[in-house]
């Protein structure tokens, strides 16, 4: 047992290090109560705590693997911790001895200069040190950088669409420390990780968690493997996906004609993705999808035949679904009749919310019958049986907190785990048709455990720009942070999605994004929220040629991506990896969030600034690196600057790699 | 004794009402500790608390007038309260029994719909209900409304010059409740008033206060009188001031020529205010004053003779001073040599800070010798003896928190009371020359007790616009909130001060501001921070004529203002009063912050929006009101709309007022 008692304190050691320490002077636990004020609007939440009490539990009594804690000797016991641990792993079970506790703060020692990663899929900061991260499933917001005019516009003129550095569709109360251990909070309550104080890390939880889990490993790769085992692994990538890009078009039947233009230009195509397969509704904001999950024959006449034709050419058809049902669609009526909808707290009627000139209800996934209905009738019959090979499984962040749920769970607890339930519904539908590893759906929302269900993440709705906290670069941070927590596959809307105010996707941005996407698990374009106002890849022969070439490079690397996929299945390592994962002796790699290893041997440093013709990146120490386009050899342990004209994203492979021939072949494209 | 014990609780009754109540279920006191993080730059502070503990003291033991409190029975006593009270007033002395306490929260019961006022000089919200107000002396910021583009520009492009609704030069931990009692915290520690919860008001103090004082009175006027007695009253207004406007010009010797233009246009002039009397320094931002407090003979040749000439015409000369000394001036050298400067914590050298391309030290007013030196040598000799009849006593908000002070006080405690020390230095200098009530200095910074020293407030640096949280309207809110706490005299820079980005003072704004200022204690113009880019009152004959007419109305009302001044001396009532002060039976008046009573009988509702030709205001119930310009009679208890062309600010007097003849005479101008 790694738990050691000492005078009025205790210590937990894992992997030969002190991970948890408690004494009267430096208590590890604080308990208390607060009064939460939550306002939500379209996935954006304003959450304020009116704190009532916060009490340090300074007095500990250790008995074997159990520790009871009180404010001081003689005061009532408030919490009991039950430890189970071996040399590397520990679980701390929390037993509340006081029903009034609804806030808990847990501290573990910090070290000066310690890097911290994780927190789910983070868009702004890969290294979490020095900041506080609330962990609540939400829209990330557009305008996540308070210093930009766009943020101000989104905050003030965009109906509260702005965000902040910590907002994410996929938070997770798990962190990885550079001390080579990870900590996970097993709770779906509102939580916050506070890394502002160098002396400790403080975890705030709005409730008593079931347990806190600790993992220590000698190497980061082992640690990532342990986490992926804990949260679940994804199936291998389907073979069809690796043939090229999934082309996102939403032009109704015209999409098929436009796809031909792509094919004729030599684009390697794996799929056609039409999110408007379910039809449209017109609003004053423009066309919106009709949220009733079945084929719309007006917008896509003869779709079954068209899908069959595509398939004959080796191209799959993908669609769209989300967990809401528009009140004016037949599925809503059916769900309401069956009692499958989330209910209002104050009335015996479904809880519908406004999504912008139309209202939708939420299917209550805590009702197993409702979840099974969605999985079977919608995912299984309306989508897979109909012929879809994949879909965007959108949203998951909008569950209000004042809902009435079938299982009696509070909205404040259900909210964060809703994306996991949503992922499970999709995965169950897929499994029910025996299509696991073949149907490819992709999710943006997530929480602890979504890893076992979501076969592919997508990075949500980036701005169509190069901005630091909203644009192209956030995709890398998102891939690296989520990848450490067991999400092996990650990709993004190529070219970004959100065009607000004056932000417009330029040809330059479009090309830089493709150059990055070719070295991720999946290439998929999106026309964005304002297709006509933004650059599309079929706008010009030049753009199309550039795009085609990058898709062919993606297809060319299919054998390598297959290897990475096999590795992900076997070990849990993600396809896109932070540099330090394979270079843990090189501390200079620890905070890098603008470059990544695609597998162990290929270093990708996408150009994520406008107006650049060259690019500078750090190459990890200890090995030599070959610049793919020039063949020039660079010693690791230094920054190098290389030319980066369009079509030549900064790429380096490890000298002596088993795949060196494959990598050097990229230059021939 | 108004303190009554009951089973594990107690209650304090004042004025026949329950003011304080404690029970184990609803404790009145929480104690704890926190770790403050304060960053300051040019009077703007970012203050963050890393809270360690917050413990409810649920268990109370009452013995006579003493109450001891602990977390629960058997736990150590943490605080002892000693009550002294009569039927109307109470003092609660706090004795800390635990030296680790550095945070304290005190709750008093709230009532639904209860209005709350005070908090010092507030610019955004007169009624404090529903919001939390940190109380820390600071720049108010320009751009105090997060919804405006100007705020975003100031926050992000203006070097952190933006602010928020609660930022003020003059906070004060005193509130007045509509339940007709006031509460004051006797402490200069960082504090916050939290009125978000309708059930209670929570007062946060970063330390254990000496005492909390409570005042209950049957009428609001009595309550304001009691507060003005507590915090100190101001001397009567000097006779010379009431003759007309103080004209602010900073054109060096040319100011005298420009003053002639004003006089020739029929402006009633009481003084010429030249803040540049101490000379200028050139920076890349433009001309700045040279912060060394003595006559600059280059910029103002023969100034003593010019001052004497002015005085012969019945016009006074006013100057400028602030508590800092530029490092390149002779006074700094003298102060440094004498050991009169605030010192760095980490080195034996003066604590100088950057004010924008020049550095200044702070005279250490906790050193009585230094304060006496400033009062005698600067205020007395360099200013009063030299011939100044008044001055702007600027700043007071910039004391850093990590300073080393002569009296050993911590910067966190000294910061808030610095304006009081600054006011005392000025008042002492004036009193030393026997000029109290004759020399007129005006301050923007303040804190509890500055009332006894500062003979006149000025509302700081408004934006030269009509904006809700930065512009002309904030002056009324400032006068009303500060007036309730014993500040009888209030005025503002006519036309506003701050011109940033695209904000420019228009002729319309200039005229509307004058129309308001004529009905305040003092009329004083300011050219603003960018004189050349902004409208000045001598820009055109039309503007000058409008201005001249309003100054003559001010001078015409001198007998009335003299009466208000006498009333202020006798009773502590401010010249500008919230409507409810005299109409406490009319609940509709309680939250009005756009109109005021100038004395008991004249209601002023300045036009504080652009593009208006009429104006709507509420007239209190129970009396009839005469519209000054038309003579029309309006019944109270309703909103009325009146024409409001330039030159006819909405003015109403109480029918039957003893001053009715005077008021009706305004229409003849």
From TrEMBL, chains A, B:
<dbReference type="InterPro" id="IPR044112">
    <property type="entry name" value="YihQ_TIM-like"/>
</dbReference>
<dbReference type="GO" id="GO:0004558">
    <property type="term" value="F:alpha-1,4-glucosidase activity"/>
</dbReference>
<dbReference type="Pfam" id="PF01055">
    <property type="entry name" value="Glyco_hydro_31_2nd"/>
</dbReference>
<dbReference type="InterPro" id="IPR017853">
    <property type="entry name" value="GH"/>
</dbReference>
<comment type="similarity">
    <text>Belongs to the glycosyl hydrolase 31 family.</text>
</comment>
<dbReference type="InterPro" id="IPR048395">
    <property type="entry name" value="Glyco_hydro_31_C"/>
</dbReference>
<dbReference type="InterPro" id="IPR000322">
    <property type="entry name" value="Glyco_hydro_31_TIM"/>
</dbReference>
<dbReference type="GO" id="GO:0005975">
    <property type="term" value="P:carbohydrate metabolic process"/>
</dbReference>
<feature type="domain" description="Glycosyl hydrolase family 31 C-terminal">
    <location>
        <begin position="572"/>
        <end position="657"/>
    </location>
</feature>
<keyword id="KW-0326">Glycosidase</keyword>
<dbReference type="GO" id="GO:0030246">
    <property type="term" value="F:carbohydrate binding"/>
</dbReference>
<feature type="domain" description="Glycoside hydrolase family 31 TIM barrel">
    <location>
        <begin position="262"/>
        <end position="561"/>
    </location>
</feature>
<dbReference type="InterPro" id="IPR013780">
    <property type="entry name" value="Glyco_hydro_b"/>
</dbReference>
<dbReference type="InterPro" id="IPR052990">
    <property type="entry name" value="Sulfoquinovosidase_GH31"/>
</dbReference>
<dbReference type="InterPro" id="IPR011013">
    <property type="entry name" value="Gal_mutarotase_sf_dom"/>
</dbReference>
<protein>
    <submittedName>
        <fullName>Alpha-glucosidase</fullName>
        <ecNumber>3.2.1.20</ecNumber>
    </submittedName>
</protein>
<keyword id="KW-0378">Hydrolase</keyword>
<dbReference type="Pfam" id="PF21365">
    <property type="entry name" value="Glyco_hydro_31_3rd"/>
</dbReference>
């Amino acid at each position: 047992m790694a738990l050691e008692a000492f005078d009025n304190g205790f210590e937990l050691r894992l992997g030969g290090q002190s991970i948890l320490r408690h004494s009267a002077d430096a208590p590890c636990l604080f308990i208390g109560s607060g009064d939460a004020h939550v306002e939500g609007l379209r996935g954006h939440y304003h959450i304020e705590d009116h704190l009532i009490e916060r009490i340090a539990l300074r007095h500990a009594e250790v008995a074997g693997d159990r520790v009871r804690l009180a404010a001081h000797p003689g005061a009532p016991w408030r919490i009991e911790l039950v430890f189970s641990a071996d040399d590397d792993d520990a679980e701390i079970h929390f037993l509340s001895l006081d029903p009034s506790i609804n806030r808990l703060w847990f501290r573990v020692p910090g070290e000066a200069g310690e890097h911290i990663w994780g927190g789910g899929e983070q868009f702004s900061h890969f290294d979490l040190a020095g900041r506080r991260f609330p962990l609540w499933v939400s829209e990330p917001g557009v305008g996540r950088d308070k210093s930009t005019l766009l943020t101000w516009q989104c905050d003030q003129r965009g109906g509260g669409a702005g965000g902040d550095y910590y907002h994410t569709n996929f938070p997770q109360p798990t962190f990885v420390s550079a001390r080579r251990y990870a900590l996970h909070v097993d709770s779906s309550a509102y939580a916050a990780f506070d890394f502002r104080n160098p002396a400790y890390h403080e975890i705030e939880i709005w409730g008593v968690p079931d347990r806190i889990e600790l993992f220590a490993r000698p190497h980061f790769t082992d640690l990532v493997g342990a986490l992926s085992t804990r949260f679940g692994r994804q199936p291998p990538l389907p073979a069809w996906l690796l043939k090229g890009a999934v082309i996102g078009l939403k032009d109704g039947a015209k999409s098929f004609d436009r796809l031909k233009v792509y094919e004729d230009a030599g684009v390697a195509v794996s799929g056609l993705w039409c999110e408007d397969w379910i039809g449209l509704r017109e609003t004053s904001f423009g066309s919106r999808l009709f949220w009733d999950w079945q084929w719309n024959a007006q917008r896509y006449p003869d779709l079954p035949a068209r899908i069959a034709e595509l398939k004959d050419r080796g191209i799959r058809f993908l669609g769209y679904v989300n967990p809401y049902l528009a009140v004016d669609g037949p599925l809503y009526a059916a769900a309401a009749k069956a009692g499958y909808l989330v209910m209002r707290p104050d009335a015996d009627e479904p809880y519908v919310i406004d999504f912008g000139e139309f209202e939708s209800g939420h299917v209550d996934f805590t009702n197993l019958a409702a979840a099974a209905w969605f999985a079977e009738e919608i995912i299984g019959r309306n989508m897979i049986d109909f012929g879809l090979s994949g879909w965007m499984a959108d949203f998951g962040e909008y569950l209000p907190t004042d809902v009435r749920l079938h299982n009696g769970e509070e909205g404040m607890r259900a909210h964060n785990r809703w994306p996991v339930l949503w992922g499970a519904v999709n995965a169950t539908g897929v499994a029910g048709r025996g299509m696991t590893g073949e149907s490819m759906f992709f999710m943006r929302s997530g929480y602890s455990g979504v890893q076992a269900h979501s076969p592919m993440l997508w990075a949500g709705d980036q701005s169509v720009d190069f901005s630091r906290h909203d644009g192209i670069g956030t995709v890398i941070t998102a891939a690296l942070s989520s990848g450490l927590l067991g999400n092996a596959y990650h990709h993004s809307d190529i070219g970004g999605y959100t065009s607000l105010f004056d932000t417009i996707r330029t040809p330059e941005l479009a090309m830089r994004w493709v150059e990055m996407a070719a070295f991720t698990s999946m290439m998929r374009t999106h026309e964005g929220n304002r297709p006509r106002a933004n650059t599309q890849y079929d706008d010009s022969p030049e753009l199309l040629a550039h795009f085609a070439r990058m898709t062919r490079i993606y297809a060319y690397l299919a054998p390598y991506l297959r290897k990475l996929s096999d590795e992900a299945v076997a070990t849990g390592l993600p396809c896109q990896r932070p540099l330090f994962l394979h270079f843990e002796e090189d501390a200079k790699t620890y905070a890098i969030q603008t470059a990544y290893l695609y597998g162990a041997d290929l270093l990708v440093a996408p150009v994520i600034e406008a107006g650049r013709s060259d690019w500078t990146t750090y190459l990890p120490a200890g090995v030599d690196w070959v610049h793919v386009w020039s063949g020039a050899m660079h010693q690791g342990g230094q920054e190098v600057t290389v030319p980066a004209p369009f079509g030549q994203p900064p790429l380096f492979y490890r000298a002596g790699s088993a795949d060196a021939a494959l990598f050097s072949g990229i230059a021939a494209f």
